[in-house]
Every structure is written in C-alpha cells, then in structure tokens.
Amino acid sequence: MTEAVQGVEGAEHVLVVDDDPFIARLLEIELRASGYDVVTAGDGKEGLDRVRERVPALVLCDVMMPNMDGLELTRRLRSDPSTSAVSVILLTARGLSADKLEGFSVGADDYIVKPFDTPELLARIRGVLRRAKEMRAQSPLTGLPGNVRIQDEIEERVTSARPFAILYTDLDYFKAYNDHYGFARGDQVIQYTAQMLQEVAQGIAGIEAFVGHVGGDDFVIVIDPQYAEPVAERIVQRFAQESPQLYDEADRARGAVELTSRTGELQRYPLLSISIGVATTEHRSYSHFAEAVAIATEMKSFTKQQAGSSWALDRRTF
Question: How far apart are CA 135 and CA 148, in angstroms?
Fold first, then answer.
C-alpha cells in the first residue's frame, strides 16, 4: 500500500528519465515551473535506482535508452507491488501504432511522440495524475474505497486514538485461477470477494465497518476491536463454503486446477482460499497508520503458511 512520496511543499514528485541531457534538463525546468518536484536520471537503470530511493507519482521516460530502455523500466515498475501504481508516460520519436501498442502492453499510462508541444505534455501529465488519484480513491472494479481512503481511515483512527482493528485480507492461489480461467472470471472472483467481505463486516460490526480494496486480490477491513475475531472467523467460513462454486465441475471435483508450465510440465494448484492478518489496538498502540498495516500484513503472511482459509491475530504487547 505504498503511496507516492510528495515534496516538502506538497508538490507531486516526478522522475524524468532520458539519456539526452538537453531534453532531460528542458523537461525538468518546465515541470518545476509548473509546480512539480523533479529529479532526473540518464537511463532506465539509474531511473530504477531513483525510484527505490523515493517513489514518484509519475515517471516520464524516453523509450530508447542505453543499459535499460523505457519499456523494460516500465515492466520492472509494474512487476513490483511497491511501484505498480506509479504512473508512467513514455516519450519516443517513434509514432507507429505498433510502437504505441507495445508501450501500452507493458503498462504505460500514456505515450507521447517527440517532438512534443509543452502545453500538451503538461496537460497529459495532469490528466494521468488525476486519473491515478481517482483510481486510488475508489477501485473501479469493486467500487470500494481505494488506497487513499484506506490510509485516511486508518490515520483518522490513529490520530484520534480511537480503538480499531485492521483485517488485511488476500486470496491464495488467485494467480493460478486467473491463468486457468482468464481475467474475466478472475474479476468476478474479486467482485464476489468484495461483496462477501462487505456483507460479513457490516452484518457483524454494523454499517460503520470500513471495507477497502487495496488492489488486485488484497482488501482491508477497519472495525472496532471487539468484532475482529468474529468477522475474521465468519469470512473464513463463508469463503470455504462458497468459493468452490467459482470453479467448473471438473476442477471442483479434482480439488485443484491444472496448468502447463513453460517447460511443458503439468502442475496442480489448490483451490482458492483466503488469508487474513489482524492487527488491533487491544494489544498495542500505533503512532502511524503504516505501523498497523505492517503488523496486519505480517500476520497475513504468517497465516498464508497454513493450508486452506485461515486467519491470525497479533497478540503481542511489545
């Protein structure tokens, strides 16, 4: 649930990656004049190092560069959960449709052909960042609050010293399901999970129960501590009862899905299960939302080591 870091004055942080020093400097000047906090890098490898130092809101990068080109940089960003939500605009002198499709296929948010008009570039940057904020505020797939609202909800509880519990929830073997049945069926699983979590959380903890969609198959529930265990237990029970219906009859009877690896080996993956890590103020206090999320994530990782759907609550007092 990493958020893009902003500058001291609240300016959105932008990384410019271009092997042409003149273009990189020009973009830096224009972006700074428009209120952005800007750093530059000379190629994709250096750009990746800069991202690891400080996660930007946007990466504006050339496609053709030495050491690591813009396409590979975009792939690397998208494959890392901590940077997968970073916006990327590719700049290139190649304007063929096939080039643009390649850029979008690796996960770029926009694609601008050189030479570019500066006002248009700035408008495209604003548009990409605006869409990213809207998506973080609300998941387009589930309609649940996204990362921004999740963070705000937890921070409000922390700063007001209100008791709370965080249930960090995700699905086990979802990638295998997605690979086997395709993205459309995978999206249906995410939507089912979102609805089930809402029904359980609000059915037990009331309408004030907060359910957010981090992204992918990850969800966060924020409720009063007294409801944490019954909500976690009921979610596990319902998912174990209902999730087999998400499979075709043959896979359900087999108790697994079969996928062929790149080497031609037939591999079996268990049916979907759900894992929940719980952090609560009943056992310790938190000074920052990230502390609570880290504990819940740690407990989720612990419970994922168990077979089937399960949950684990942190009871440590240190």
Answer: 9
Indicate if the alpha-carbon torsion angle 296, 286, 150, 56 is positive or negative: negative
Helices 174-181, 183-205: axis angle to 10 degrees equals 140
For 64-92, write each residue's pLDDT tens digit: 999 999 999 999 998 876 787 799 999 98
Higher pLDDT, 143 or 10: 143
The residue type of 103 is G
Closest CA to 149 of 162, 136, 160: 136
pTM (predicted TM-score): 0.61
**Domain stops at, among 137, 172, 197:** 137
Instruction: Using DSSP, state whether 265 is helix, strand or coil.
Output: coil
Number of domains, the chain: 2
Q: What is the CATH number of the domain that holds 77?
A: 3.40.50.2300
* DSSP H or E run through 166: strand 165-172
